Amino acid sequence: MATLGAQRKHKVTVVGSGNWGTTMSKLVAENVKANPNLFDQTVQMWVYEEEVTIPKDSRHYDPSNDKPQKLSEVFNRVHENVKYLPNITVPSNVVGNPDLVDSCKDSTILIFVLPHQFIPRVCDQLVGKIMPFARAICCTKGVDVSEKGIRLMSEAIGMSLSIYCGALSGANIASEIAQEKYSETTVAYDPPPMDSRAPTPKGSPTASQVDLISPSKPVPSARSARLKALPNEYPPLSHENVRKLFHRPYFHVRMVSDVAGVSLGGALKNIIALAAGFVDGLGWGDNAKAAVMRVGILEMVRFGKEFFPDSVHTSTFTEESCGVADVVTSCMGGRNFRCAKMAIERGESIFEIEQKVLNGQKLQGTSTAYEVNTFLKSQGLEQEFPLFTAVYNILEKNVRPEDIPELIEPKA
Ligand SMILES: NC(=O)C1=CN([C@@H]2O[C@H](COP(=O)(O)OP(=O)(O)OC[C@H]3O[C@@H](n4cnc5c(N)ncnc54)[C@H](O)[C@@H]3O)[C@@H](O)[C@H]2O)C=CC1
Ligand SMILES: O=C(CO)COP(=O)(O)O
């Protein structure tokens, strides 16, 4: 067994404490307990600090102490995230830490679970402050678009911190997983060969050469930092051991190597879920929803093949949880779907609905629709992705949701 002889254990930090971040902390904490030979028994969870008032219907409500309190302090006292994941007990080996740098400083595994718009700033604060040989897994769903092009969030994290970053994504509505209802997920983890214990050979691949840049048309400028090999004292971060960190009896993990496919599935399905919400909000029924899902899946596959041609496998979208399966679950019960539907039904903007009903949780589909549109425009390819373009134009009020059938009809 490869872990024999390893004297040190992997320490894990979950960077984020929202609905999915807290759920991720719970399942990872259960797994570190189940694998004490591999993992340190404490899981750090970075909490973006805010003041919370414990609601009256919470089991933790105390009338003698109903003043606003720090979220991290409440979490560490009651082992429940009363704001973002109420009524779910998180194991006591999760420590909520409001100090980002302190929460990550000696961890070898960083699990990023933040809304994607916050990733760049958070990574900036961590540069030079983490273990140089740390590995990351990105559970965030989104893309990073700038004037230089488009990057996966895993690329944004990996390039910013000069570490390897894989991705976890699937048909994963957090509240169901927090209640330990069965679901599947996909973990893409494919570090370059130098991750073996041998000293880095001369001329071995750099982060940018191997997996931190999509060799696609829109190539971002990369820092060509050499990845640091994991020291011999740690158990290897093989597929087998990475799987042990995430797999639960109620959360089944399939390991793959296609980081781009897994990341893009998670990001682009959020745009499709908005379209599904728009047509459902019009009262058009399940056939209409299926139609936008079909067109959206085709655009997702096309996007991957067009812009990440050397890395994306089409089968990732069709065969793994992070593809069609995530489109299906997100278009049935996800927040993007529900808020888009409510926006049409109430005649309000989805941005207003997000503020009113999500209690601080964030939609990812709206900003992703804008980012993908900025990128498609820069490539002159808006017309090739009519559903993605329609969603952007609905958000911008340039077209109406009722126009969707005409807009996605193939042009002769
Ligand atoms: N909730 C779900 O069912 C799932 C979510 N995801 C993805 O996970 C990612 C994180 O989502 P959730 O954990 O659900 O978060 P959330 O939407 O429940 O909560 C928002 C989080 O952002 C934090 N935040 C607010 N302002 C911030 C700032 N300036 N800097 C840093 N953090 C700030 C809040 O404290 C909170 O933890 C998203 O990309 C989402 O698409 C993926 C699968 C399932
Ligand atoms: O990613 C998700 C399910 O897989 C959750 O989607 P929402 O952010 O739309 O709730």
Automatic annotation (TrEMBL):
UniProt superkingdom: Eukaryota
Region annotated Disordered, chain positions: 188-219
Enzyme class label: oxidoreductase
Key word Transport present: no
Catalytic activity: sn-glycerol 3-phosphate + NAD(+) = dihydroxyacetone phosphate + NADH + H(+)
PROSITE patterns linked: NAD_G3PDH
Entries under Pfam families matching the protein: NAD_Gly3P_dh_C (PF07479), NAD_Gly3P_dh_N (PF01210)
UniProt cross-references to InterPro entries, sorted A to Z: 6-PGluconate_DH-like_C_sf, 6PGD_dom2, G3P_DH_NAD-dep, G3P_DH_NAD-dep_C, G3P_DH_NAD-dep_N, NAD(P)-bd_dom_sf
EC number: 1.1.1.8
Listed Gene3D superfamilies: N-(1-d-carboxylethyl)-l-norvaline Dehydrogenase, domain 2, NAD(P)-binding Rossmann-like Domain
Protein name: Glycerol-3-phosphate dehydrogenase [NAD(+)]
Residues the record lists as binding NAD(+): G16, S17, G18, N19, W20, G21, F118, A174, R335, K362, Q364
GO annotations of cellular component type: cytosol; nucleus
Alphabetic keyword roster: NAD, Oxidoreductase
A biological-process GO annotation: carbohydrate metabolic process
Binding site for substrate: K141, R335, N336
Family the entry assigns: Belongs to the NAD-dependent glycerol-3-phosphate dehydrogenase family.
Entry GO MF terms: glycerol-3-phosphate dehydrogenase (NAD+) activity; NAD binding
Chain ranges of the Glycerol-3-phosphate dehydrogenase NAD-dependent C-terminal domain: 258-405
Residues forming the catalytic site: K269
Glycerol-3-phosphate dehydrogenase NAD-dependent N-terminal domain boundaries: 11-190
